Amino acid sequence: METENFDKTFEKIKELEMNDKSFEQCKFLNCEFVGSDFKNSKFIDCEFIDSNLTLIKVNGTQFQDTTFTRSKIAGVNFSNCAKFGLSMNFDICYIKHCDFSDLNLPKTKMEKCEIEGTDFAGTNFKESNFRKSKFNDSSFTNCDLTESGFLGADGYLINPAINKLFKARFDYPGLLGLLRDFGIKIE
Q1: 3.40.50.1820, 3.40.50.410, 3.40.1550.10, 2.160.20.80: which CATH number matches 42-177?
Q2: What does each C-alpha distance from 51 to 29, 108, 149 come to in angstroms?
Q3: How far apart are CA 49 and CA 152, in angstroms?
Q4: Burial class (CB in 10 A: 0-12, 13-18, 19+), 10
Q5: Collapsing DSSP states into helix, strand and coil, what is residue 163?
Q6: pTM higher than 0.70 for the full model?
Q7: Residue 167: closest CA among 151, 152, 147, 140
Q8: DSSP summary character for residue 156
Q9: Structure confidence by residue, pLDDT tens digits, 67-104
Q10: What is the pLDDT of residue 2?
Q11: Which of 26, 40, 65, 87 could form a disulfide with 60 if both were Cys (CB 3.0 to 4.6 A apart)?
């Protein structure tokens, strides 16, 4: 099957089959992709704005320099994405029950997001920014968070004994999320 190529703006679309397509410098505005299949598609320098990406399937999907803004992303297993060139940023998004395990995502921006029930295990988030994000029931396990920023973020659970945190930036009271696994009581 030959891949279809697109380079434009899409507004208010509800397309269920997005697989085997190539999108470069596209904008997706107010789109509903609930349950859509993005299998083996390429999104290069694309933006998803005010869109719903609940339960999308991303097996073999390439996201390169792709930005998600004010979008709902729920039930997505990003660990199934194509690994080469993977680069995503999230701004003011609602991210729920997603999996970012074992990905190489240095310099990722996940700012002002609400992140719930999401798994970050074995992920390289070196030099990433989680500024002002709110975490709920989400954990970082065996992650490289070297030089990453959590300023203004709260609710995160990060065990310093099993994550790399060299020069990572935290502020109070958020940094209490670094102590929870040690059973320390702060009054």
Answers
A1: 2.160.20.80
A2: 6, 20, 26
A3: 24
A4: middle
A5: coil
A6: yes
A7: 147
A8: -
A9: 999 999 999 999 999 999 999 999 999 999 999 999 99
A10: 43
A11: 40
Reduce the DSSP state of residue 151 to 3 states and report it.
coil
Q: Alpha-carbon distance 127 to 147, whole Å?
A: 5
Alpha carbon distance 62, 43 (integer Å): 6
Rounded CA gap, 103 and 59, in Å?
A: 14
- Closest Cα partner for 23 from 56, 60, 63? 63
Q: Do the beta carbons of residue 78 and residue 59 sit within 8 Å?
A: no
Q: What is the rounded distance in angstroms from the CA atom of residue 109 to the CA atom of residue 129?
A: 5
- pLDDT over 90, % of the chain: 76
| Domain regions of the chain by residue span | 42-177
Flag whether pLDDT at 1 surpasses 60: no
Residue-wise pLDDT for 131-163, tens only, equals: 999 999 998 999 999 999 999 999 988 899 999
Name the one residue in this structure whose structure tokens are 């703006």.
9
Phi, psi of 37 (to 5 degrees): -100, 110
Query: Number of C-alpha atoms within 13 angstroms, CB side, residue 81?
Result: 25
Single-letter amino acid code for the residue at 29? L
